[in-house]
Each structure stands twice: as structure tokens, then as C-alpha cells.
Amino acid sequence: MSPVFAIVGLPLVSAALLALVPNYKLGAWLNCAASAATLAVSLLLFAVEPSADGLFVVDALNIYLIVLTAFVGLTTSVFSATYIGHEIKAGKLKPLNLRFYHAMYQAFMFTMLLALSANNLGVMWVAVEGATLTTVLMVSLYRTAESIEAAWKYFILCGVGIALALFGTILMYLAAQPVMGPGMAAMTWTELLKNVAGINADILNLAFVFLLVGYGTKVGLAPLHAWLPDAHAEGPTPISAVLSGLLLNVALYAVLRFKMLLAVNGEALSPGPLMISMGLASLLLAGFMLYRRRDIKRFFAYSSIEHMGIITFAFGMGGPLANFAGLLHMAMHSLTKSAIFYAVGHVAQSRNTQAIDRIRGLTVSHPALGWGLLLGVVAIAGLPPFGIFMSEFLLVTSTFAREPLLAVPLTIGILIAFGALVLRVQQLCFGEPPEDAQPIHGSLVPLYAHLGLVLVAGIWLPGPLVAWFQTVAAILGG
Question: Of the four listed, 1, 150, 231, 334, which is most buried by Cβ atoms within 10 Å?
């Protein structure tokens, strides 16, 4: 049996079982065990290369995203176990809601892994829609007026986006039918890649525009980003970590799959200008908005918009070096931003607030946490020796070499965001702490595990990993 069936099957079965577990502590550690089992099975993909069929495909593009998703899913479940437990003790969550929370967490993992491994356009769309529904329910977990409003905004905006993506998927099928005939073949990635050169380019172009706007809503690209800051600020922090670290990648992965189809069809439009425009708009908007944020989770939500803009710009530029930078940045952002949200969760609990103005002196009151948050912000700001510095350096230099005029707004946007991050981290981590600071609850191992990987990637990338990224960069085309 292909490992893919186990990779998507384990979270699905776990979701059903966790819905029946009434005890929170048991459910929390079963959630961790299920996530660990999923990661263990996903690692088998490096040893066993399953052949593509009508339902699943594992290739150079998605294998690293599958493993990355399983890994961040595991570390977030470990962080979640103690974080959510403390929320119950503080009276912010009711224990009865937590059986639902753990089931939805595994259902969310199932939908993301299904979207990443699906070999069918329709199945991928259903999986992305399923990811929306499960996270909407978790964003509203606190049942406050603000969390319910954020969940509705998320549902409505992403619902419109996913509807546009459905229309684009239908157009793609209609374009493929005259060449490939009716049936499943015209909805299968591997078959479409073989035959897309003969597909009508006009319909293909129209389909891609709808797909970019539709899935771009889930990526959080401007001007379709309005749901993202509210969902991050009002939902539980573990959900903020997987939203920024994983779900945005899944939506962008869908766009890249369709970009590959256009790259093979010589008469289709170049998707680069559209992706570059949306990427730069997201980067510049988020960079300026960072200066006005007063909520720590909302602040780092806009940082996610900034980095998804950088990644989208990289893939819009295309070519071996820019694609390499985009792939590396996806991985580094996932690890770094989820680590930051782990730290932010501990900070919010220890200070009983998310207001930036009321948080200061973390390196004094909680040295391990404060320095961990500081390192996370240094990494996400793009400073050496962390991996994001390497990916941004590759992107900026390749853009200067190919399109110097585009490199100017790219560099300005990165510097604007850098300034906001440095400004805020000084206030958060240094100075005199308040007297009412509470001890943190839970382990900092997930935080430092992620930061350790990002540090190693900034200093040294293994040869096989470099070859792997180069292969995928070539597949993605210009």
C-alpha cells in the first residue's frame, strides 16, 4: 500500500476517534501521538517513491511540503497540549469544547495533506475548502463576539475566494476536454501536464486568473487579505501557528500547480506579471501596516502577509534562482513564523494580554522565552545567519540582475517591514518588566527546535536538499 494512504488516512481516523474522547489531557496527548505517527509515515516518502495514480501524486514539488506540514503539525500539537490546558484553567475555554478542538485539528491536518498529495483538481479544491471549514470552527473556539466575527469574516471572504477557484477549476476542465476527452483524465495533474501544450490558451489564461484570485485569497495576498489578521488575533494561538505556517503554503502550492501548466503551454500568458504585482502589493501594504498594529498576534499576522508577498513575487519572477529562493523561503517562513507564534502564545498567557504596549522586558522576566522571541524576530526580519536571510538575498540579487526596476520596490518593502520588526522587538524584549508577570506554562522545545533548523539552513544546506530544490525550481519554469 502506498504511504500516501496512511499519511492522509491517519489524521482522518484520528479526527473521528478524538471526537469520542471526553478527557482533555488524554485527547491532547492522543493528538500529539497521531501527529507523530503522521510525520513518521511521511518520512517514508524519502525511501519509497509511490507511483502516481488517479487520486494521489508525490513528486519533487510536494514531497517536502508534505513532510514540512507533518513536522509543524507535530510541534504545534505539542505546544497546543499545554497552551490549551492553561486556557481551560484560566476559564477562557470550556473543557467540553476541547474534544471538538482536537478532532478539528486532525481534520485540518487531513485536509492539508490531502490537498498537497491530490492528483485531481477537484479533490484538491474540496480539500482546500475543507481546510477552510475546519479552521473557521477553531477560530471561533473562544465563543466571544470578536472571535465569532473573525470566524464569519474568514468564512465569507475565503468562501468567495474558493468559489472563484472552483470556477477556475471548471474552466480548466472545459479547456482540457476537447484535447483529452471527458472523464477523470482531464482533471488529473499528471495527465494534464502531458497534454496541456495542445489546450486552448485563451480558456487556460482565463482559468488561471480566476484560480490566482481564488486561491490567492487563501494565501492572504492583497487586496484579499482582510480575513487573515482577524483570524490570527481572535483564534487560539496554536491555530495562528498552523494558519501562518502551513495553510498559506497549501493555497500557494495550488497556484504553483496551475502555473506549471501555463509554463508548458507556449501560447498561454506568462503568470509572472500577475504574481509579481500581487506579491509587491502584499509586501508594501503589510510593511506599512506593521507600524500601526497594537495587538501582538495581529502584528505577526501582517508579517505573514508580507512574507507570502515575497514568496509570490519570487515565483512570479521565475527562473532557477528565484524559484529556488521562493521554495527555501516557504520552508523557512513556515518554521520561523510558527516558532514566533509559540513564543507569542506563552507571552500572552504570562502577561494576560495581547496588547503590545503592555508587554515589555521579556528577556528580564522570562529569559528563555524573551531571547527565543528575539531570535525569532531576528530570523523573520531576514538577518544573518538565519535561513530567511539566504532566501531573501538570493531573491534580491537575482531580481537586480534580471529586472533592476523591480528590485527597487522589493528592497524598499523588505526594509520597511524590517524597521517595524526592529522597533517592536526592542519594546517587547527589553526594558523593565511589569511586576505582575506570570510564569510560563509549557515547554519551549518546539520554539527552539524550529529556530535551530532555521539557523542550520542559514549556515549550511545539505547537498541533496540543494539538488532537490534545484530540480523543483526547474519544474516550475520561468
Answer: 231
